[in-house]
Design brief:
2 domains; four-stranded parallel beta sheet; homodimer; 16 strands; Aldehyde Dehydrogenase, Chain A, domain 2
Chain lengths: 416, 416
């Protein structure tokens, strides 16, 4: 497969996707939900075939020496297929943002202006070898009125083809709204990233190297987050018990998620940091800090300069004493990644100062950064979390997959 | 000036702009408005100096053979300086979107989530030799809490330096929020377009070649429109008098604006197209159409295939008969530029079909496309009109220069 072949393949898929997107944009919520429920049903009906196709991917993956973690993410069994079908049904039950009127103005000349939510159009989704994303991303795009071009990791190609076939059968004459890139050559990714005008938005779902490549190469807009270098700041006025519980949860509940705290900042005025550090160390968290922190808790290792800019995604936490909320805000401005940052304090004025000044997609007061998640935010699902500054920030679900248009209704007005 | 020098200049300007943007993000509306009013006052006080500096630009422009149209856009006199100051004051009087709560959710676990409007950050504005844009764009960015990096056309550099000096004096210790690229080398534009992370958004204001260059080279997000290939569709159920008035106004009120209609589509079922075509021709509009249209109005010249894809920005109109609203929608999908398209009809169902199906930033019913303008939309001003699909579409004013963040308020919640 050459770059030119990949380009024409993506052009063909996106032309079919565009035609479907045009139809989908005008469909009502009930019709979209019904099509998605039929797709879920088709996934369930094909359960054995999906597990069999996945078995071939698993065998090839094992033969190619994929790690246990990657094989686990690749694996489908009947329980996972059922979860996938149920996920599609859950998306079908979400409120549809398309057609929602954002605002309405009547002008002195009688023109009535509304801003109405409309789908974005054609969305490319580039992800790793996790077959469940095929159904999940397709459903989110579809329910928000968008066509999707799916490009999953090559190790999952047989699984993805089988899932795509089930989706397409379920969607019936709307099958073109979900396009799968059937070839595994990486040139297809490059062609998607260059498809200005044909693909309106690319969403990379996966690890840092995938996202970094997409951000570096893309000519089309990208919705993504690269790093989650998240901070929890324990203020001098924090409740000590709450501070300890939040710090422990924010770091240790799951260390591999993008909402995990990676740096704990503690106000020098906070009375008792020792129990917080001890609780973390007792829970198996490796701590890295400066001499002051080492003096407080002997299990703190010496931090290097890099620690403050590192997303560990492991049971490692950098810890630092700072002089109050302003110093915490300054540290976060210098080292954060604009994802999720939290303050623990009983002082509402200090909290508001932090919430206002920290320039992140999500800022939190007296809560664990691990809540950074579309489900926890009540969005019902998420296509991802965005740390860019435009369009959508934080957890992105159906609404983030829409844009708006201005609808102007007149009675013959002409402009003077 | 080398590319490296330009890069370090832009890095320096954007670092100063970022520091100012951080301060500006936390300021209340009254303080921003007060600073802008002081800037307007400084412009007024410097009127003679501005006109004098502009006189040098004008002399150089004449010596360099600038066209009359360009010289007119470059020229400042005391009346235009006053208009510039009044424009800054008008922006100071606009409602400030920053801090506005978009929505609020309370989760079952007691977490309270709000989405709050925040400034985008640092905005680069690249424009031609129109000195008034210096004050206008700076004011819009400032009032929405953003720092601006202004790069105007080189022919206006002396005028821009003088306007910038007045703005800076008026803004006092917030002067860093408005940075002017003081050098005229084009490498500075390239450096701005590549300044990912340092400049959050670039807004090109100017003609097609400027916008095309910016869109082609930019690594930072761009808010712009390239073409306004706008359509007015006269449906079979249109009121003939209204149809004639709207068609005439949509094309001929001002032919050089981006909201001007460039193609008139007429339903074959519309009873009497002849008076519409005659009125346009009588008003001095050159008409281009197919044999059918030529048969209706002898002053219609033969259209070439290119006419349907051309933004004339002159008193030229392509005219075409189509079979009803579906054919009109299909023509617009094939040839439009997603800017502004209008239908004239008395049939509400046909109108809604058009408004739903036409995929443009602005869709209109029974109104002239020339209303496509931030002022006419009640926004008070506009930084430009966007035809991209993400973030902001149509006229963009203060709200379009903001984004949002999620603010989560808890009482010690940790995630299970």
């Amino acid at each position: 497969m050459s770059g030119i072949d990949a380009k024409s393949l993506i052009a063909e898929l996106s032309a079919r996707a565009r035609a479907a997107a045009t139809r989908l944009a005008g469909m009502d919520s009930a019709a979209k939900a019904q099509a998605l429920r039929a797709a879920a049903k088709a996934i369930r009906a094909d359960s054995d075939a999906l597990v069999a196709a996945n078995g071939e991917d698993m065998a090839a993956g094992e033969a190619n020496g994929l790690s246990g973690a990657l094989l686990d993410r690749l694996m489908l069994d009947s329980g996972r297929v059922e979860a996938m079908a149920a996920g599609v049904e859950a998306v079908a039950g979400l409120a549809d943002p398309v057609g929602q009127v954002i605002d309405r103005t009547e002008r002195p000349n009688g023109l009535v202006l509304t801003r109405v939510r409309v789908p974005i159009g054609v969305i490319g989704i580039i992800y790793e070898s996790r077959p469940n994303v095929t159904a999940d991303a397709a459903a989110l795009a579809f329910m928000s009125g968008n066509a999707a071009i799916l490009r999953g990791g090559s190790e999952a190609i047989r699984s993805n083809r089988a899932i795509h076939a089930a989706l397409a059968r379920g969607l019936g004459d709307l099958a073109d709204a979900v396009q799968l890139v059937q070839i595994t050559h990486r040139a297809a990714v490059g062609a998607m990233l260059q498809a200005e005008g044909a693909i309106d938005l690319v969403v990379p779902r996966g690890g840092k190297s995938l996202v970094a490549r997409v951000q570096a190469e893309a000519r089309v807009p990208v919705l993504a987050h690269l790093d989650g270098i998240n901070h929890t700041y324990i203020d001098g006025a924090a409740d000590p018990v709450m501070a300890c519980e939040i710090a422990l949860n924010a770091k240790m509940r799951r260390t591999g998620v993008c909402g995990a705290t990676e740096t704990l900042l503690v106000d020098r005025a906070f009375a008792d940091p020792a129990p917080v550090l001890a609780a973390l160390a007792d829970a198996g968290c490796a701590l890295r800090g400066d001499a002051e922190m080492q003096a407080i808790e002997p299990r703190v290792a010496a931090a290097s300069g890099e620690d403050w800019d590192t997303e560990y995604l492991e049971a490692i936490l950098s810890v630092k004493l700072v002089d109050g909320v302003d110093a915490a805000v300054a540290h976060i401005a210098a080292h954060g990644s604009h994802h999720t940052d939290a303050i623990v304090t009983e002082d509402a004025a200090v909290a508001e100062c932090f919430l206002n000044q920290v320039d992140s997609a999500i800022v939190m007061w007296n809560a664990s950064t691990q809540f950074a998640d579309g489900g926890e935010f009540g969005l019902g699902a998420e296509i991802g979390i965005a740390t860019g500054r435009l369009h959508a920030r934080g957890p992105v679900a159906l609404e983030g997959l829409t844009t708006y248009k201005w609808v102007v209704r007149g009675t013959g007005q002409v402009r003077a």
